[in-house]
Design goal:
Layout: H1 2-11, E1 13-15, E2 28-30, H2 49-58, H3 71-77, H4 81-105, E3 110-113, E4 117-118, E5 122-127, E6 132-136, E7 142-143, E8 149-152, H5 166-175
Parallel strand pairs: 1-2
Antiparallel strand pairs: 3-8, 4-7, 5-6
Helix pairs in contact: 3-4
Bound molecules: zinc ion.
Zinc ion (ZN) binds next to helix 3.
Length: 185
């Protein structure tokens, strides 16, 4: 990770504070920590979600924002239903803000995807009216099952169908008008 950061710092201005995004010279790489109180060190970075996107759009140069929630993975390794649900609610909050931003502009592509399934949580039985779900875990490790991908905005149809995960970055780069810098492995 440190090697990646030092390599990035040769090409980008690296900042670790959202407040610095608007004033730092481009091209810019912002590495923002999880918000205080998040369940995970890799949770969404903002405490006040709408304010998080403003510094990026204010640059006027376009941006790629990557938001991860690691706790869905960590809690699933522990077969911790409450942990998974709490992480999903945080992620849902982040997505609400991002989708509202994108819908209000019309020029922003949003892609939502997991890098893998963890532990295979399944709803075996349940009752919507009673708010009851019986959950079962298949395992406590990473699985090779397919994961869904959701895309919204211009370019979204490019992400339909069955994709190798390496295609996602490549297609994002193509949509940006440039080519991925490394060949398929
Ligand atoms: Zn994991």
């Amino acid at each position: 990770m440190r090697d990646a950061e030092s390599a990035a710092s040769a090409r980008f201005t690296v900042v670790r504070d959202a407040a610095a995004v608007a004033t730092a010279p481009a091209p810019l790489l912002a590495l923002l920590p999880a918000r205080p109180g998040s369940r995970s060190a890799h949770g969404p970075p903002w405490r006040s979600p709408p304010a998080a996107l403003l510094p990026f759009s204010a640059t006027g140069a376009g941006f790629l924002l990557v938001v991860e929630h690691e706790e869905t993975d960590e809690a699933a390794h522990d077969n911790d239903v409450d942990g998974v649900v709490a992480a999903m609610l945080e992620l849902d909050e982040a997505l609400r803000v991002i989708l509202e931003y994108a819908a209000g502009r019309g020029d922003t592509l949003v892609v939502v995807v997991a890098d893998h399934d963890t532990a295979g949580m399944a709803v075996a039985h349940g009752d919507f009216d009673d708010g009851i779900a019986e959950l079962r875990w298949l395992d406590d490790g990473h699985l090779a099952t397919w994961v869904p991908l959701f895309a919204f905005g211009p370019g979204a149809p490019r992400f339909a169908g069955v994709l190798d995960n390496t295609e996602i970055g490549r297609r994002l780069a193509e949509l940006r008008g440039s080519r991925a810098s490394h060949p398929a492995s």
